[in-house]
Write a structure and sequence with these properties.
By secondary structure, this protein is α/β, with parallel strands linked by helices. The chain is built from twelve helices and 18 strands. It has two domains: 78 residues, no CATH class; 364 residues, Alkaline Phosphatase, subunit A, CATH 3.40.720.10. The protein starts with 6 loop residues before the first helix and ends in a 26-residue tail after the last strand.
């Protein structure tokens, strides 16, 4: 009896060397229907071809350095002299504790000194000397607010647009869905994970949610080889692999001719072709051996404390330089979650990340890429102004605080050399120009030439939006005057 292989069986058995990451991604796509079940007005085209914008964009790429756990803003970017003045006294206000409820009401001033930095005079902690060197290119937002003190609920707010709701497409998915890819050889959305493991909430930080898997983040491993099975086995290299891929392409196109309504199949064909091209392009992009010694030193790759994170920041620049549209750098676990021993743990994580993060901005600027690339640094929450574990002063820490905290942004039409918003005199709550993750999402999309109220995806019988109709705005105060765009709207 002759067994006729299905396309899936053929792919699983013969498409060796397409690349393990890409292959798994593409196999998932084979499970998609011809079009989303909720769409009733004709087939929806899902592909990575460049798309039109609502208006002229200021940015065409973004790098997000996400600092899981909640960096302590009053120790880093939001000086509070009143908190220092009343250090050790009891806080008279109400504290909205995290779910842990282990914080006291004893105020804890920052043990680190602040000072005006750069020509702009923004006050930055001594823990961030390299940020201080680029502060004239940076906008520090001091009034971030999620309204929630838990990690997961705020992480999902940051990435998916709605607090606590799991499984929604992330910002990177929305951008790649809306705009497609600028690179013919690399995925549009790439994720650089940490040697310490996945961050809190794991793969949900870069999920495509209910969008096709075409728009999920493609993960690069934290150690070599960063993409498993990128190169084919020796016995399948060269002509044999080309023949296999050519046959696969022929089968796909014959199937498309028989089923012309399967618009997602066209995208799948393009994705297989991309996977094959990645064998050369990805290997080149991830090889930093051609970087100058001065560049490696600038990122701290010559030092053990900064080598790992510095390498990932450098790779982020190389990816953007080659047309990748959205890059995320994550840290394993919650390295900024300093419930205790903040006096030793906070300097350690700053030492690891400060130099590489600043080098990324400086490097992009030197190469003429900063004007078109948004750079983000920040976590999902901040820390409280009162102590935790204060029974032993050497082990004192700070509990969660989603009521007010800081983040910084650079490039992509964002004004440098400024601060925006304020927390109260103790750093507890955002009290002036409160900014939510939805406001940041609306602003980022705006810089990409997208109106957050118009960008939608039909799912579950309605048009879905990243900001989901929640009250938010484009934070125009932190944007440069739109005197020059990257290109006219198309």
């Amino acid at each position: 009896m002759i067994h006729h292989q299905s396309r899936r069986e053929f792919l699983a058995n013969n498409a060796m060397g397409v690349g393990g990451v890409a292959l798994a991604w593409l196999l998932q796509q084979d499970q998609l229907p011809a079009r989303p079940a909720s769409v009733s007005d004709g087939p929806r085209v899902f592909d990575m071809k460049p798309k039109s914008t609502h208006f002229a964009p200021r940015a065409n790429a973004m790098i997000s350095m996400f600092m899981h756990g909640g960096p302590s803003h009053m120790d880093l970017m939001d000086p509070k002299p009143e908190l220092t003045k009343y250090d050790g006294t009891e806080y008279s206000g109400d504290v909205q504790f995290s779910f842990v409820n282990r914080a006291s009401k004893t105020l804890m001033g920052s043990p680190w000194k602040f000072g005006p930095r750069g020509q702009c005079g923004t006050e930055i902690s001594e823990l961030l000397p390299h940020l201080a060197e680029i502060v004239d290119d940076v906008c520090v937002v001091r009034s971030m607010h999620t309204g929630f003190n838990g990690h997961e609920v705020s992480i999902r707010f940051w990435h998916g647009g709605i607090p606590a709701t799991l499984g929604r497409p992330t910002l990177g998915s929305w951008i790649t869905y809306a705009l497609g890819s600028e690179s013919q050889d690399l995925p549009a959305y790439m994720v650089l994970t940490d040697p310490g493991g996945h961050p809190v909430d794991g793969v949900n930080n870069w999920t495509n949610g209910w969008m096709p898997p075409l728009y999920q983040g493609t993960v690069l491993r934290p150690t070599e080889p960063r993409i498993l099975n990128l190169q084919p086995p020796a016995h399948l290299k060269g002509k044999l692999q080309q023949q296999n891929l050519a046959l696969l392409d022929q089968l796909n196109r014959q199937h498309l001719q028989r089923h012309p309504g399967e618009s997602d199949l066209e995208a799948r064909i393009a994705s297989y072709e991309l996977a094959a091209r990645m064998q050369v392009a990805a290997a080149e992009a991830l090889d930093i051996s051609d970087e100058t010694e001065s560049t490696l030193k600038m990122y701290g790759i010559d030092r053990p404390e900064t080598k790992e994170y510095g390498t990932r920041c450098l790779l982020a620049r190389r990816l953007v330089e080659r047309g990748v549209r959205f890059v995320q750098l994550f840290m394993g676990g919650q390295p900024w979650d300093h419930h205790n021993s903040i006096k030793t743990n906070l300097p350690a994580v700053c030492l690891r990340t400060d130099q590489p993060a600043a080098a990324l901005v400086l490097d992009l600027k030197q190469r003429g890429l900063l004007d078109s690339t948004i750079v983000h640094w920040g976590g999902e929450i901040g820390r409280l102004h009162v102590t935790e574990n204060q029974g032993d002063p050497s082990k004192a820490g700070r509990d969660h605080n989603g009521q007010g905290f800081s983040a910084w942004f650079a490039g992509g039409g964002i004004r440098g050399g400024m601060t925006f918003g304020e927390t109260d005199e103790f750093g507890h709550r955002a009290v002036v120009d409160r900014i939510t993750p939805n406001d940041i999402q609306a602003t980022v999309l705006h810089q990409f030439g997208l109106d957050h109220t118009e960008l939608s995806f039909h799912y579950n019988s309605r048009e879905q939006h990243l900001t989901d109709g929640r009250e938010c705005r484009v934070v125009s105060e932190i944007l440069n005057n739109p005197t020059k765009s990257l290109a006219p709207a198309v």
